[in-house]
């Protein structure tokens, strides 16, 4: 595959409003079942995720893992994710499709399973959080 180099002295051409609009994906109803309204679904799910965040078993998943405390986490986990990041993404309409949101939710448990002992409480809690969030999204 050939990738052309851009000369260092090249000036960028500004993108027109039409260019920007045509390059942005706009959610369609099938992206956010059952009702198809991205804004309404994201707002609703964000409120529900906030309630999940209030559960005692959610404490370990509220914020990103502290790499200073667990430096090996950065070497073991290729896609770190937590509930506050998911909520912020919902609030900012980052997710174009509900499937992308489900992907992030599933990674909470995947990461816990990969980094911790299989029968540990943190893995059990991660699975409960994953299952609860997926149920709320559905």
Explained architecture:
With 138 residues, the protein is mainly alpha-helical. The protein has one domain (29-137): Histone Acetyltransferase, Chain A (Up-down Bundle), CATH 1.20.920. 51% of the residues lie in helices and 0% in strands. It has six helices and no strands. The protein has helices spanning 17-23, 38-53, 73-76, 83-91, 98-115, 121-137. Helix 2 runs antiparallel to helix 4 (83-91) and helix 2 (38-53) packs antiparallel against helix 6 (121-137). The longest helix has 18 residues, at 98-115. It is flat.
- String of helices and strands: HHHHHH
Q: What number is the mean pLDDT?
A: 88
- Characterize the main sheet: none
Number of domains: 1
Q: Could you name the CATH homologous superfamily?
A: Bromodomain-like
Q: How many β-strands, per DSSP?
A: 0
| Alpha-carbon distance between the two ends | 41 Å
> CATH fold name, please?
Histone Acetyltransferase, Chain A
Helix content: 40-55%
Please tally the helical runs, counting DSSP H or I stretches of 4 or more residues.
Answer: 6
CATH architecture: Up-down Bundle
Strand content: under 5%
Question: Structural class from helices and strands?
Answer: mainly alpha
Radius of gyration: 19 Å
């Amino acid at each position: 595959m050939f990738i052309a180099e851009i000369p260092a002295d090249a000036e960028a051409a500004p993108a027109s409003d039409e260019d920007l609009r045509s390059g942005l994906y706009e959610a369609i109803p099938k992206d956010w079942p059952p009702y198809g309204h991205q804004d309404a679904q994201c707002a609703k799910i964000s409120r529900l995720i906030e309630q999940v965040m209030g559960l005692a078993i959610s404490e370990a998943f509220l914020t990103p893992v502290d790499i200073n405390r667990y430096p090996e986490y950065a070497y073991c986990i290729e896609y770190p994710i937590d509930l506050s990041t998911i909520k912020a993404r919902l609030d900012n309409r980052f997710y174009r499709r509900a499937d992308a949101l489900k992907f992030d939710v599933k990674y909470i448990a995947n990461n816990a399973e990969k980094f911790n002992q299989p029968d540990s409480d943190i893995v059990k809690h991660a699975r409960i959080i994953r299952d609860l969030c997926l149920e709320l999204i559905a």
